[in-house]
Amino acid sequence: MSQVIEQLNRLEAELRLRDPGQHAHRNTVLNLVTLCDDHDRAVVCDGLVRAVAASHPLRAILIHLHTEGEKRLSAEMSVQAYRLPDGVPLQREQVLLEVWGATAAHVASLVEPLLVSDLPTYVWWTGRQHVEAEGLREVLAASKVLVVDSIGFDRPPASMLELAGLVGQLGDRIGFSDLRWERLRPWREAIAQFFSPRDRRPFLSSLREVRLECAASQPADRAGAALIAGWLASALGWRFGRVRSVGADLTEAPTDSRAQVSLQSRTPVNVPTGHLVAATLSGRRGRRDFSLRIELDRETGGHAVVSIDIGDSPTLNQHLPMPVTSETDILFEVLARGRRDPVFVRSLIAAVPLLEALR
Amino acid sequence: VTAPTAPAPNPLAEGMSEYRSADPALMVIFGATGDLSQRKLLPALYNLARARMLPAGFMLVGAAIDTLSEDEFRDRMARSVRQHSRTQPVDDKALEAFLRDVTYLPLDFTQLEGFQRLARCLEELAEARHTGGNVVFYCATPPPTYPLISKQLKAAGLHRGRGYRRIIVEKPFGSDLRSARELSRILRDAFPEDAIFRIDHYLGKETVQNILAFRFANSIFEPIWTSQQVDHVQITVAEPLGIEQRGAYYDRAGALRDIVQNHALQLLALVAMEPPVAFESGSVRDEKVKVLRSIRPLSPVELRTQTVRGQYAEGWVMGEKVPGYRAEPHVAPDSTTETYAALRCLVDNWRWSETPFYIRTGKRLPKQATEIRVQFKRPPHLTFGREAMLELEQNAITLRIQPEEGISLRFGAKAPTAGIELRNVNMDFLYASSFLGDAPDAYERLLMDCMLGDPTLFTRSDEVEAAWTLVDAIETSWRQGEPPLETYPAGTWGPKGADRLLEAEGREWHHP
C-alpha cells in the first residue's frame, strides 16, 4: 500500500507541475469507496464512478474483492484535472484495487490510508448479497454513509432484512441510502403532493385501500412496493397485521388503521423487473370518495398518468414526467442529497413484516 | 369562539423539499407573449414541470393582447422553451405533458369584459382541476400597466375568492418615492400586502441567498463582520453590455434607478443586516429594512462629493469597438442619463459605525462582475517589518455573485524564500464545483415561493420606499448638475471621479 500512496502522490505532483492553474482549483468534496465482489460488476462500477466523477470532484476508491486465492494486491491509479464546458475546474482521483485472499477480509486497512482527510466517506456496497459481511463492517467504521442498490441484490427481501439489521446496529452513527429508494422518489413525491392541500390532509386518516403494483415475476420482486408501503406505514403510524400471500402474484397486509395494503405483481413489459408500475390510494371521507392513481405509461415511457377523483367532480388526468433515470444519475442524487435519510431508515424498518413475507 | 387550528403537517412530506408541497393553483401570466414571459417565465415553468415541482392540478393561463389560438400560443411557448430553457436538450415528453396544462386567453387590459371572461374561465378550471380557487396573477407587462391590471382584477372580482389570490409585479416598483407609494396604494386597494409579491430576480439567485448562509450559518465570520475589523465594503455590479434594445426605457431610468435602487441596495442590505431571528419573511425583511433606513442621508455637499455619475463614450469592449451611449438607438443625442453610478454611504448603526460602503455600477465596463468585497483592516502591528509586508494587501473576503459564483478569502502567506517575504494568496470556494446538480434559475425559485406563499425573497413596500428615499435625494441633486456628468471610454472601469471617491480616503477600487 505504501507504493500505491507513493505513486498517487507522484501523479499529483506531476499534474501540479504540468498544469499549475488547473491544480490550484482542487476541491474534492468526498471520498467514494466502491466495493465489488464480481468482475462484471467491477467493470460497470468503474464506468459509473468515472461518469459521476466527470462532473463532481471526488476521490474514488474502487475495490474488487476476491475472497479466494493467494493474498495479493494489484493497483491502478489515475489523477485528472480538467474543466467542465462552463469552465469550472475539477480534479478527480481514482484508485482501482484488486484484492485476493485474506486481505479481502481486512479491506478497511486498504481504504483508510487512501481517504482524503476531513471529507465525508461514502461506501457503496455493490455486492449481490451479504450486506452483513465483516469486511464491510470494518470499512463502515471510517465512513459516514452506506449506499446499496437493493434492486441489484440476488434476493432483495433477504438482503434488505440484513440491511434493516445493520441499521439497528449502526443507525445512530452512519447514514444509509438505497438507490432503489431514490428511484421511488418521484412516486413518493406524487403521493405526498396529493395530500398537501389543507382540505385533503384529513384524507390521510381515511385511506382504505393502498394497491402497489410492481413489474414482477416472483414475490421477491415486489420489495420496492414493500418499501413504499413501509413509508406510508411509518409516516401514518400504521402497524401491519398478519401479512398473507394470495397466490404468487399478490401479498395482502391489513393495518390497524383499517387501510388494506396490497402488493401485486404485473407482468414486466417495457419496465425492468422490480420497478413500480402503478400505485392507487383510495378512501372515503364523509360523503366524498377520493382516489389517486399513478400509473407508468408503459407504451411511450418517460411519464406517468396521474388520475385524481374527489367526490362527484370529473376525473382529473395529468401527465407527470417520470423519466427513466440512469444508475449514474441516481448515484449522483444520493451523493448530492447528504448523509442521513431518517425517512428511508424508518420506512425500511416498517417494511420488515412485508419483506419477511416476500422472502 | 375558538381560533381555527392549523392542520397537522403532511407526514408524507417529511424529508422532501418544501417545494413539493405547494397547493394546486392556477397561474395567469399577463403579457404571456412578451419578452419576459418567453425568455424567463415559460422556460422556468417548464423546468419546474420537468422536475415535478408543479402541484397536480396546476394550469397556466396565458393572457395577452395578441389574438392567438390556444395551439398557436402553445407552439410559441414550445419554441421559447426550446430556445431559452436552462436545461438542454429539452425533454420532449415533459414539454408535451406541460403544454397540455396550458391555455390562452386574448385580453385587452383596458376592457373589463375581458377580465370578466377570465373570471369565468378561472372558475371552471378551479372546479375541473381541484385547485380550490388558488390563483397567482403575474404581471409580466410594462410597469405602467400594473395599476390598470390591479384595478381590473378588482372590478372583475378576481382579487378575492375561494383559496388565495396573489399578484406578482416586476421591478422597477415606481420611478421615485411618490410613484412607488402610489403603486403600492393601488395594489393594496385590491390585494393585502402579504399577497403582493414584488419580484427582483436578483434575490432568487442562489449566490445571493448564500450571503445569508455564509454569514449566519458559520460562527467564524460573524464576529469579524463589524466596523472593528472591516475597513470598508465595495459592492460592484459591472456589465460589459450596453443598453441593447432598452434605450427608450434606460434613457428615462439610468443606472441609479435601474441597478442601485434595487439590486445594489439589496446586496448592501444583505451584507450589512443583523442576524434575523429565523429565515422567514418577516424577520429577514425587517432586518433588511432596518439597514436601508440606517443609511445616513447625504448632505448637499456629500451629494456633490460622495456620488459620481458617468456616461460611456465610444470605446473598445472585449475586443469590439462600441458606440458611445448617445449614439445608441432610442437615446436622445444630448442625453444626460448616467450609465455609471458610484456612491459612498455610511450605515449608521452600532455594527457599521463610520465604515464606508462603496457602491458602483455601470454599463460598458470591461467585464461582467457582480461582487461584494469586504476589506479588512491591517494588523495593528507589523510583526514582520515594513519591508516584508510591502506587497501584502489587506485581508479581504469577496462574495462573487456572478459569474464564477463563489467566495474568496485573501490573506498573507510566507513566500518560499530564504528570508521573510509575505505574499497574497487566495482560498477559493467555487459554487459550481462544490455542489452537484444544476442550481435552479432564480425565476423557478421565486415562482415556487409565491405559490407557497413565502415572500422572504420578495421586496416589501417599506424596503422599496426606504431605497427610493435615498435614491430620490441623489436624483434631485443630479438633476441640478451636482456633481457634473463625467464621461468614460467604454471598456474602462468608469469615470475618474469614481477613483477619486476612494483615493480621497487612501483606498482604491478592487478590479474584479
Q: Would you kindly provide a brief summary of this structure?
A:
The complex is a heterodimer of chains A (359) and B (512). Chain A contains twelve helices and 15 strands. Chain A is α/β, with parallel strands linked by helices and 359 residues long.
Mean pLDDT of chain B: 91
CA distance, first residue to last residue of chain A: 41 Å
Overall morphology of chain A: elongated
Q: Give the uncertain stretches of chain A in residue-range form.
A: none
User: Are there runs of chain B of 5+ residues with pLDDT below 50, and where?
Assistant: none
Supply the number of helical segments of chain B: 15
Could you characterize what this model shows?
The complex is a heterodimer of chains A (359) and B (512). The two termini of chain A are 41 Å apart. Chain A is an alpha/beta fold. In chain A, 33% of the residues lie in helices and 31% in strands. Chain A is elongated, with a radius of gyration of 23 Å. Chain A is built from 12 helices and 15 strands. Chain A has an 8-stranded mixed sheet with strand order 9-10-11-8-12-13-14-15, with helices on one face. Chain A has helices at 2-18, 20-23, 39-53, 108-111, 134-140, 156-170, 179-183, 185-194, 223-236, 327-337, 342-350, 352-358, and strands at residues 30-36, 58-66, 72-83, 89-100, 121-125, 145-148, 175-178, 207-215, 244-246, 250-254, 260-266, 276-285, 288-296, 303-310, 316-321. Chain B has 512 residues and is α/β, with parallel strands linked by helices. Helices cover 36% and strands 20% of the residues of chain B. Chain B has 15 helices and 17 strands.
